[in-house]
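Technical annex, item 7. During the second reporting period the consortium partners agreed on a shared format for inverse folding records so that results from different sites could be compared directly. Each record opens with the tokenized structure and is followed by the designed sequence. A conforming record, contributed by the partner at site C, is shown below for reference.
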């Protein structure tokens, strides 16, 4: 009788079990974990435009929360770095050069550097933009 898994399912279970065992030795115990709370509603939108606030900033990442009132927009613009956009509450029409995406909570949008885009809030919305900064 072999100790080797016989089916693909058995093999994947064996790999997962081995990874869990090795996980205790992977990585480091040095470093930091930053827990960000109260991201939704941390600032009221301006009367005529969204308000931005920095949630986190370090040498590799900057996270900015935007608060929109219904109908507010950020016109055509671009980021110098790759970004991840995530709606925490509400809904936006996210305009791209080739289409508009109805972006909702639970979805993440990745943009490559300098891709032009616009944002219009369909309802009161909180979204985060995570800028992925180059390592020096």
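Designed sequence (site C submission):
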């Amino acid at each position: 009788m072999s100790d080797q898994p016989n089916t693909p399912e058995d093999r994947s279970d064996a790999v997962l079990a081995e990874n869990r065992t090795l996980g205790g030795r992977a990585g480091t115990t040095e470093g930091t974990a930053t827990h960000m709370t109260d991201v939704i509603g941390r600032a009221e939108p301006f009367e005529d435009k969204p308000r931005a606030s920095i949630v986190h900033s370090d040498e590799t990442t900057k996270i900015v929360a935007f608060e929109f009132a219904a109908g507010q927009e950020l016109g055509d613009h671009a980021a110098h770095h790759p970004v991840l956009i995530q709606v925490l509450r509400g809904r936006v029409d996210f305009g791209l050069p080739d289409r508009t995406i109805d972006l909702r909570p639970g979805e993440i949008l990745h943009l490559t550097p300098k891709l032009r885009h616009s944002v219009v809030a369909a309802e009161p919305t909180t979204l985060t933009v995570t800028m992925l900064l180059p390592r020096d």
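Residues 37 and 55 are 9 Å apart (CA to CA). The helical segments are 8-23. All partners now use this format for quarterly exchanges.
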